[in-house]
Amino acid sequence: MTPPKKTTTSKKTASKKPETDVKTAKPAKAKKAPVVKKARVKATKEVVAESKKSTPKSEKKSEVIKPLPPPPPRKEPPLPSPVPVPVPSPKPLSPPKPLEPKPELKINIDTENISVKELADKISAKPSEVIKELMKRGQLANINQRISSAIAQEIAASLGKIVVIQKKETVKEERPRIQIDKLVLRPPIVTIMGHVDHGKTKLLDAIRKTRVAEGEAGGITQHIGAYQVVINGKKVTFLDTPGHEAFTALRARGAKVTDIAVLVVAADDGVKPQTIEAIDHAKAAGVPIIVAINKIDKPDSNLDRVKQQLSELGLQPEDWGGKTVMVPTSARQGQGISELLEMILLVAELQELKADPDGIPVGIVIEAKLDKGKGPVADVLVQSGTLRVGDIFAVGHVFGRVKALFNEHGDRLSEAGPATPVEVLGASAVPTAGDMLQVLPTEKEAKQIAEQRQELQTRVSRGKVLSLEDFSKHVKAGEQKTLNLVVKADVQGSLEAIKQSLQDMTVGNIKLNIIHRGAGTVTESDVMLAKASAAIIAGFNVGMEENAEVLAAKEGVEVRHYNIIYKLIDDVKLAMEGLLEPEYEEVVIGHATVRNLFKFSKIGVIAGCFVKDGKLVRGSKIRVFRGQEKIYDGKLESLKRFKDDVKSVDQNYECGIAILGFTNFQAGDEIEDYEMREKPRQR
Fold it and tell me: Quick one: CA dihedral 475, 479, 481, 482, positive or negative?
C-alpha cells in the first residue's frame, strides 16, 4: 500500500498567521489594526497553541485548523468621479490702456488764505499730515490757523494732490439808484422815546385806539413791530418798539429807520436819566425831536419846569424862541393827541420825505422770530420800491422768496409800498433786526450775496469796532476827525468835573465829542449807543451790568475803567494824540550769541543761544549778524528753554530760537533783539 501523503497545510498556516491580516487574509500592512482585531488574532493564536499541545501527532496531521471568519468589510461610499475642468482658450493680449489723467481738484475760496482744517478736508487728508508738511517748511500751525494759497498748493502737491485755487464768484452789492424824477412823498416813520414811567406805551395805545387806519374794522390783531394811522387823509407810520434801546439797536446795525423822534416827558416828574439818554441817542442819529409833555391832567404837573429842564439840555421850546415843538398831552384822557399828530405831519412836510415806489424794493427788518406754523417771520418796514409776493430777496445773511405778506390787521396783501410795515414769510432762516432787505433778480444771486454778508460779518466780529489804530488810518485818509466818547461816573459831581475838563479839549485838528454822559453803571443802552456812534466808553468809579459786559465783548466796544480823574483825562489826551500820525523809534531789547545748532525733522533748525545782555522776547523783531554783515532781519517765531516754550529769556541764560523761513545759522552768529515803540510827543 502506498503510504498516505503528509498534510503540511496546518503547519504552514499556523506559522504564517502572525503575518496574515484577519480580514482579508493578505499580507499585513504597516497600518495599526484596531484593538478589537488584535484581541481576535491573539485568541486565535491561543486556540491553535492549545490544540498543538492536546492533540496527538496523528491527529495533527489529519486536522486542519481554519482561521476565524473575518468580519464583514465596511461599505464605504464610492468617491465621486472628478469633473473635468474646461481649460480656457488663450486670448490674444490687448495693448495696455493709456492712463487717464487724474482730474484736478479745485478749491474755491474767496480769500488769499485757507485754514489748515479746510485744506485737509478739501484734499481728503488728515490735518496732522498737513501740519507735518508745514513743519517741514519750518512753520508751526494748528488746525485753525490760516495759510497762504501758495503754501497750500505746495503742501497739496507734496501729498500727491493737484490743487487749483480759484476765487469764488462774488456779486457786487450796489444800493439801488434813486431816480429823482420818480420820487413821491411817503409817510413819515416815528419812534416814541423817553423815561420808562412817563407814559410811552399809554400814548401809543391812545394813538392806536383813536386813529388806527380810519375805516379799518377790528383794529390791531397782531404785533408786527409797527402800524399806520391816518390823519386828514395822510398816513403816519409808528414803530411799535417803545424806547431808545430798540431805536439805537437798529441804528447800530446801519439802519436809519426813524424820521421823527417823539420824546415823552411827564409833566409832574420832569427830566430823568433815561430822558437824557433818549435825547443823546436822538441827537447822535440826527433825528428831529418833538416833545410830548404827558400827564398834564395830574394836579402837580408843571409845564414851565419841564421846559426849563429841557432847555438846559439844548431843546428850546418854540414859545420860548427856540425850534423844538412841544405839545401838552394826556394819554389817559386823550388830550392833545390830535395836536401831536398834526405837528408830526407838519415836521414831516418840512423834511419833504420822498421815495420811489417803482424802484427796486428795499426794506429794514424791525423784528424777526421763528413761528411754529409760519416758519421764519420777518417784520419789515419797506423804505423804497414796492415789495410783492413772489419777489426773491436777500436780507442780511439770509435769502428767500416772498411767500406771503400780512399787515398789522392780519390781512393778506399782494404788495407793500414805501413806509408800509408788513410781515414777510419765506426767508430761509430768521434774520437779525436792523438787516436790510433787498429784492434781487435771481435766487442764485440772492444766495451769493447772503453768503458774502455772512463771511463779512464773521470777519468783522473778530475785531473791535473802535481802536486807535483804525482812527489813525481814518485821520490819515481825511475821513475821521472826531473822537466820540460816552462818559459814566459814580456821582453827578464827578461827572461835572470830567465834563468841564473834556468839553473844550482839542489836539491838532482832532475834536472830542461827548455824545452821552450820565451817573450810574454802564448799561446795555450805553454799549449800543457806543457801537452805533463808534465811540469809547469811559467809566469813573463805576461797574458794568452783567448783560452790558457780555454785549460789549460781543459787539467789540471798548470800555475803560478809571478811579482817578486825571488818569482818565490823560488817557483821553493820549487817545486823541493817537489819532494823529504816531512817531516810532527803535529800542534794542537784548543781544545773544549762537553757540550750537540742533536739527529736528519736524521743526527744522534750532539755534542754541546764550543771552549776553537784556533779554530775548518771543514775537519781537531780531537781526542776525555774521561778523559785520547783517544776514537776516525778521521776527522771532519760537523761543524755548529746554523743551518748554517761553515768552522771554533773561540775561545769562541759555535758550533755543527758531525763525520761520531762516535756517542758515552758524556758531558765532550775533543776534540783536529789538522792538518799535511809539515816541513820546513833545508838548
Answer: negative
